[in-house]
Amino acid sequence: MGPRAPGDVADILNVLGLPGMTNAERITTGWGGTAIWRMEREGRTEALRIFPAGAHEARDREVAAMAAALTGGVPAPEVVPAKSHPTHPAIVTTWCPGRTIAESLATAPWRARALGAAMGRTQARLHRVVAPEIVRRRSPDWVAWAGSDEDALGDRVRALPLRPDALLHLDFHPANVLVEDGRVTGVVDWENTRAGDPRADVARTASILWLARQSPELPRWSRPVLRLLETGWRQGYRHEARAGHETGRVTDMPLFDAWACAAMISDLTPKVGMPGVWIRPEDLDDLRQRLARFKRRAGL
Ligand SMILES: Nc1ncnc2c1ncn2[C@@H]1O[C@H](COP(=O)(O)OP(=O)(O)OP(=O)(O)O)[C@@H](O)[C@H]1O
Ligand SMILES: [Mg+2]
Fold this sequence. Notes:
The chain is an alpha+beta fold. The protein has helices at 6-16, 56-71, 101-107, 112-126, 133-138, 151-158, 198-214, 222-243, 253-268, 281-297; strands spanning 21-27, 35-41, 44-50, 90-94, 99-100, 166-168, 177-180, 183-187, 194-196.
């Protein structure tokens, strides 16, 4: 997907009106739908995100989400103004300094709790931001992400008093949050952004942290480290949410946790066996068991 060679990247940049790239390196994870390049241009390090053909709305949504986050005091990449590309919607942004929380955990595991707290505080701040119109337009039904097999669960979530307009990231995890000297320098990867109730984003992060602990690629020592990170994340989130007087919003979590499990099942089922994706059929079974547990707790 997307251009494969730095020469193709240079062609795209020329159309965007952003020439001068001297070095481009493809960053591949295999999970997302966007091609990410790290590049040098005019003495600066920048990120180039190339979207699937025709995904102009997705591009504009990510631009708006990052701008809204920045305005709301949440660090995010700054978008470099550019012309539109007719076939390859793309964004050039600043490259945020530091490294991801995931990378920091590997070299400084003893900082897991503090890193988690920084991550949680940033997410709570994000949830104070009102989603821009183009993000809200996508989201009248974020609940439907749980899939059509989960109508009863969806109906229960929809029946709750929900906040409709908070800016949600929905992929807020340690590989998408950059830190330097203990401070968050950027939240990246806004592909899933939607408007909705903050509890959905909290449940989504919890389910991603749970999934990360299942990975067969994970060294044994890192499971307790991920648990510490999660403890710090929950504390940091709660602390910052309280500081913003957002109390009484942590009710009904089993329903949101069930929703996040169901969303993850529908998201990952087609990805099993794809290059770079470690998810095995037995991991989906574990997820289904987790979903069943949360449903029971929610009285479903
Ligand atoms: N603007 C940026 N500044 C610093 N690092 C970045 C930036 N954009 C991307 N990265 C780095 O590249 C990695 C991959 O980028 P990104 O998370 O956007 O795509 P992805 O992981 O392929 O998507 P997905 O999480 O959906 O699989 C990030 O984890 C981060 O390390
Ligand atoms: Mg990512």
